[in-house]
Amino acid sequence: MNAAKAGFSSWDLEAPIAAAIEALGWTEPTEIQREALPLARQGLNVIGQAITGSGKTAAFGIPILESCSPSGSPQAIVLCPTRELAVQVAEEMDSLQGDKGLSIQTVYGGTDLEKQAKKLDKGADIVVGTPGRVIDMTKRGHLKLGGIRLFCLDEADRMLDMGFFPDVLWIFEKTPNREQTMMFSATFPQEVLDAAEEFMVDPVHVMSDEMEVEIPEIEQYAIRVGRANKLWALGRIIAHMGEGDQMLIFANTKRMVDILSERLGKFGIRAIGLHGDLPQGKRERILNSFKGGGESIVVATDVAARGLDVDGITHVVNYDLSIDTESYVHRIGRTGRMGRKGEAWSFVTREDGRLIEKIASTWNLTIPFVDAPSLPEGMDRDPIGRRDDWEEVSDPFGMVTVKLTLGKSDSTKRALADWIAREARVPDIVIGEIAQGEDETHVEIHVDKVAYVIDVIKAREFNGRSLAPSIMGS
């Protein structure tokens, strides 16, 4: 029984890793870590069932970090279904290695191929990536899989859903010197179990009882807002904080935590950033100050927030929406504790629309879309000004629809298009579809030129009349 309740300090972890865990403020392992980590450290093949947010990255990450040495050649590979998850896993493993000096490289699509290739050519001890780009880098000769001893598959069920298994199999077959294989998944459909048989010899199955996630009884809201105006919306929410209120703001990356705390500071709002790269002493000071009420606003990554157990948090803000549904619930669970009132706000950009729907349907939540709060009584200007965000009102082709007070009897489409091109001195290609009604006309203008074109139209008259341009969809 005592072994089951053992803390990290009882496991005799490698010194740099033990120091990093202490710096992160972790004392008790989560259930999946308690079950899987000792088995994985013995070199056994492990199949773990655990949701994202339950600490599974450390469950496979710590044994991998302990087994690798800073040699510059790949010894372990972790495959993830998405680039976001790959970045998150790599960041957490980097935080957990402390000063061990391992090179952990991410390999994923949708970003500069040459830059990734150069980093790999300089040397990598651990590779975290998505299957497609891993294959690409292997075929191009930048990634050598022959020396891989540890092979880990994260979120295997999502890999299956996204059709990655043939790619996973290809990579697996290129790692003949494997000594250990681990697979983690929130669910185990039959196809994943079949794949596990193909991948693994005598695996040990471990399952976390933390599959049930408790949904806190708090007010949840979502605000549709473009990236350019997230800071403005955050300023509005902060303006409504009362004396003694505390806010935890979540960002998805360490870099965003730094940017956000710095930008808030420029607007005179004190916010402390918290992530795994901070020195232990500084981290502990921030944690203690937040717990004691000395700091009212902390910006953190999911990993850093794990060691943060503060009952006084009244506001949680998802500045970046979490990339998986479980993390959302873990985040909002930081407020409304001990029967206190709490509220959670999520900023939803146009790309995040499907993600917030998935979160709501997965957990059967009601997350109403609302406008950003109005300014409190007695405050006549925004703490952070609103900016024009043309990207948010443009369509997938980069066109913004502008409404003009002009009917179809007042002009032909061609005459209007020619007038705009001539007055604003823009090429015809900047002007898209024109739709005419009885008393208004809708003109598409490319996002790169729309602000300038609107200013020109406001300043000129068309056949002696003002066109009063306004934006559709804003």
Beta-strand percentage?
A: 15-25%
Q: What coarse outline follows from CA principal-axis ratios?
A: globular
- Helix tally equals 18
Can you count the beta strands?
Answer: 17
Structural class: alpha/beta
Integer count of domains: 3
CATH superfamily of the largest domain: P-loop containing nucleotide triphosphate hydrolases
Query: At CATH's second level, what is the architecture of the largest domain?
Result: 3-Layer(aba) Sandwich
Mean pLDDT: 87
Largest sheet: 7 strands, parallel
Helix content: 25-40%
Head-to-tail CA distance between termini: 59 Å
Spatial order of the strands forming the largest sheet: 3-4-2-5-6-1-7
Task: Give the C-level CATH assignment of the largest domain.
Answer: Alpha Beta
Domain Helicase C-terminal: 217-380
Keywords: ATP-binding, Helicase, Hydrolase, Nucleotide-binding
Domain DEAD-box RNA helicase Q: 6-34
GO molecular function, one term: catalytic activity, acting on DNA
Task: For this entry, give a set of tags.
Rossmann fold, ATP-binding, 474 residues, seven-stranded parallel sheet, nucleic acid binding, Alpha-Beta Plaits, RNA helicase activity, ATP-dependent RNA helicase, DEAD/DEAH_RhlB, 3 domains, six-stranded parallel sheet
